[in-house]
Amino acid sequence: MMWCLSSRPSLVLQRRRFKLETTTTRWDDADIDDECEKHNRAETIVNYALESGKDVVVADVGCGHGQMSLLLHSRGVKRVIGIDKSQNEVNYANECLRSFRRKSTSASESGESGDDDDDEHQKTKNKIEFRIGDGLESVTEENVDVVIFAGMGTKLIRKLLSRGRSVETSSSVRTLVINPPAGELVEFREWLWQNKWCIEKESLIIENANAHVVMKCTKKTGEEKTLSVLDLWLGKLQEEKKSSNVKAYAINRREYAKERMGVLEGLQSEGRLRDERELERYRNAYVALASWLEEEKT
């Protein structure tokens, strides 16, 4: 049985046989291990947020049913604000919160928790809430420390980061935890850097046969530097030299760059290439990724 990591933005991994196309690359099962299956995506996002400590205010933008917010709440974060523009999603999230509190109360009353746990539950009752809103525009009074963007495209994330009461104009926001599509990262990494955000960490997670990237960003300080090709195409993942999953991701990105090179070189030969710089970018990416992969063999 084979794994497939598509070069399309969704980067779907599928355990099935298929016709090999120019947009896909395959590896034997031995080349793709299950190291990241042990690390649930939500757990990784929460752990990144908790690196800022528990005495923080976290905004979970696009919270959906509120599972991430509830997980943060259960870990003792000082305050969690779940935000979603869908009334139905917010209603469902509040139902989940009520269910969570009923179970906590029931556990306390049945003696499964001690008095200290019960007191702690009472103290934390008002530390989580769900609001209708589009991005941080619904957060008008709180000083948010950490903002989570999970399960949305980079175009929307950039839009939400830039408009209204954006994190760029908020002095309190220190950390972003972002889960963008794994196939949309080159331009997004560059955009983050240009907008004064430094990527501190990245994790590649394989979950339900899908590839996901979770990144932690902090406000940029210190001297400016020029991002390398690998900084854009692999980011902090390039430091995971022993990860076969990262290697698979790098192979996928290399083949994608090669495919784009072929298309653009075809246009160039026909005199229809509009921007020579685009072709040069993909050539540089292919060379850099190929070189990185060769180094990993030694």
UniProtKB/TrEMBL annotation:
It holds the Pfam family TrmK. Residues 103-123 are annotated as: Disordered. Residues 58-98 form the Methyltransferase domain. SUPFAM superfamilies: S-adenosyl-L-methionine-dependent methyltransferases. It comes from the Eukaryota. One of its GO terms (molecular function) is tRNA (adenine(22)-N1)-methyltransferase activity. This is Methyltransferase domain-containing protein. It comes from Bathycoccus prasinos. The lineage of its organism: Eukaryota, Viridiplantae, Chlorophyta, Mamiellophyceae, Mamiellales.
